[in-house]
From TrEMBL:
Single GO MF descriptor: superoxide-generating NADPH oxidase activity
Gene (UniProt): AOX1
Reaction equations catalysed: 2 a ubiquinol + O2 = 2 a ubiquinone + 2 H2O
Official protein name in the record: Ubiquinol oxidase
CC cofactor note: Binds 2 iron ions per subunit.
Similarity annotation: Belongs to the alternative oxidase family.
Signal peptide segment: none
Top-level taxonomic group: Eukaryota
Subunit structure as annotated in this protein's UniProt entry: Homodimer; disulfide-linked.
The species this protein was found in: Daucus carota (Wild carrot)
Topology of this chain in the membrane: Multi-pass membrane protein
CDD domains tied to this protein: AOX
């Protein structure tokens, strides 16, 4: 488990676990939520409202509160991992060398600790889709026009990257200064990307495309370390098995494979 203040991040807790965590505060959050037998009913919701019960296809209860069964899928592992957009224009070259310059400090800081590197990568990778989707959403409202489906595409991308983070939280134990670094890097990157998207959406998307190319490289190195035995190939977290519809006996290597395929898809989109 990935401990934060005694428990894992709440977004990755199962519904039953979250009810236990919120047990002491449910009365304050949900008012007098009581069952017919007079006992207080613990509500696993930020608003103190009990959500609908969701079940799997086999009829068993769905235990995740951060995604639902209809949001799961099987990753396309046949996607071309070597595809590369050769920078031709000044904008392309600016995006390419900006990303390359960010690679060096990352390699120096994390070295071969690919689990923690993946966590840092995903806290950053989930930002562009949300920023782009938000700005396109506002643009659509201002202009009274459709977005051509891009708002949902970008928000789905952000959510997918967030699920990568929820997964790696289960297998990595970042140190305190790495958590502090997340706050700094995400704050700087969010604002820089926001301004870049306002100035040139094409440049911003090109940066993401090259970031995803670097992500593919990082996960390929991750796989090499797993194959060499340098990193233990532990069983896949339950959240990953349900999200990517993986076999029950899947391992960390299988998780890295599907995450890398996701990154390749995001590369092509951007």
């Amino acid at each position: 488990k990935f401990p934060v203040m005694g428990v894992r991040w709440r977004s990755s807790l199962t519904l039953g676990e979250k009810e236990q965590v919120n047990g002491s505060s449910a009365a304050a959050a949900g008012g007098d939520n009581k069952r017919e037998d007079g006992n207080k009913q613990v509500v696993a919701s930020y608003w103190g409202i009990k959500g609908e019960e969701v079940k799997k296809e086999d009829g068993t209860p769905w235990k995740w509160n951060c995604f639902r069964p209809w949001e799961t899928y099987q990753a396309d592992l046949t996607i071309d991992l070597k595809k590369h957009h050769v920078p031709t224009t000044f904008s392309d070259k600016l995006a390419y060398w900006t990303v390359k310059s960010l690679r060096f400090p990352t390699d120096v800081f994390f070295q071969r600790r690919y689990g923690c590197r993946a966590m840092m990568l995903e806290t950053v990778a989930a930002v562009p889709g949300m920023v782009g989707g938000m700005l396109l959403h506002c643009k659509s409202l201002r202009r009274f026009e459709h977005s051509g489906g891009w708002i949902k595409t970008l928000l789905d991308e952000a959510e997918n990257e967030r699920m990568h983070l929820m997964t790696f939280m289960e297998v990595s134990q970042p140190r305190w200064y790495e958590r502090a670094l997340v706050f700094t890097v995400q704050g700087v990157f969010f604002n820089a990307y926001f301004l870049a998207y306002l100035a040139s959406p094409k440049l911003a998307h090109r940066v993401v495309g090259y970031l995803e190319e670097e992500a593919i490289h990082s996960y390929t190195e991750f796989l090499k370390e797993l194959d060499k035995g340098t990193i233990e190939n532990v069983p896949a977290p339950a959240i990953a098995i349900d999200y990517w519809r993986l076999p029950a006996d899947s391992t960390l290597r299988d998780v890295v494979m599907v995450v890398r395929a996701d990154e390749a898809h995001h590369r092509d989109v951007n």
